[in-house]
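Tokens for Phenylacetate-coenzyme A ligase. Go.
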Amino acid sequence: MTAVETVPREELEKLQLARLRETVGHALKTPFYSRRLGGIGISRPEDIESLEDLKKIPYTSKDDLRSAFPYGMLSIPLDDVVRLHASSGTTGTPTVIYHNQHDLDAWTALSARSILCTGAQRRDVFQNMMTYGLFTGGLGLHYGAEAAGLLVIPASSGNTKRQFKLMKDFGTTVVHATPSYMLHLASRMEAEGIRLEDLALKKALVGAEPHSEDIRRKIEELFSIDVYNSYGLSEMNGPGVAFECVFKQGMHVWEDNYIMEIIDRESLDQVEDGEYGELVLTTLCRQATPLLRYRTRDITAVYPDKCPCGRTHRRIQRFTGRTDDMLIINGVNVFPSQIEEVIMAMPEIGTNYQIVVQKMGALDKLIVKTEVGKNIFTDDTRDLKALSSRIAENLKVSISINPTVELHEPGFLPVAEGKAVRVLDQRPRM
């Protein structure tokens, strides 16, 4: 554990203020922020006198990044840029983040800290099953694991047969993957002739997609390992923004690198610790593409108490959803995470599911498709009908909507090797 992880809050806030001024200095060199900050009377770093002054600055959105494409957010000469990453899975103009060598070194150090706080050690073998490329998931923890001294296997995503072979051949002890891919691996073990005793696996670091506590428990039970939740987004570098420690009681946001705010989605005012709202982040250690008060759209809350590990960096709770992935079904607000919590708490359910929304006349129709365990999927339709009804009843209690539930045999639903596509909204666009 590094000294900055346990620094007293007063000293941490002094460090944040100093770094915020530096960040504002870099931001003023960008075409976008020079206009925005100039419009509110901030023309030099010294105009930021306290952390409270951050609240004077307007929020930055994903649309702002797109409107500034390609170089409107760049604060340094292009000759000094050594890498860029772009958002994945979007249509139209991407969001692009540039890095100089300083930025990559800071990100690497943060990723190494994140990996080590889960209890990983130099003797561990780290198999990275995240996609490499413009997506930040692969490269982000790759360099962090190397800096932490782990042996890194850059396996990337997919090719399940090869993943198992690498795990067996090199005695992989730690893996990095999406929760959905970990569930897919578990579902393929029998077909690939893999037994738990064939593997040396101890830990899984999962991220890149929201998942429930029940999903974590299911992965832990299937592999007999510890699973640690992580959080990152390409606009804030990628993985390493927040990570669980060995106590697995929320993710520590590394506040020497980020200023964290939780705001009410309607009023946009800051809420108290313990109250749910949208996470807003400000970079403190990035020079090439500084971002001030970036709205992540992710919904969470800050734990008001201290972590037993002794770190002073505050923790955020598991995300309940996003402000922009909320489904409005016949006037009712529904987060996909609510549906996942219900179905994954049922032992009969398998490792894959899909949420489909369709238009039936003037009304919306919610269809929940899920695979069931091999021992459940039988020729006795009465048992399946009873299970389907029970799932529908449990969902109605949670989301106030009566869905159609479809049960399928294992392997029926498509498997995503990257981020899982859990929601298919097939309603016609207005």
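The chain has ten helices and 20 strands.
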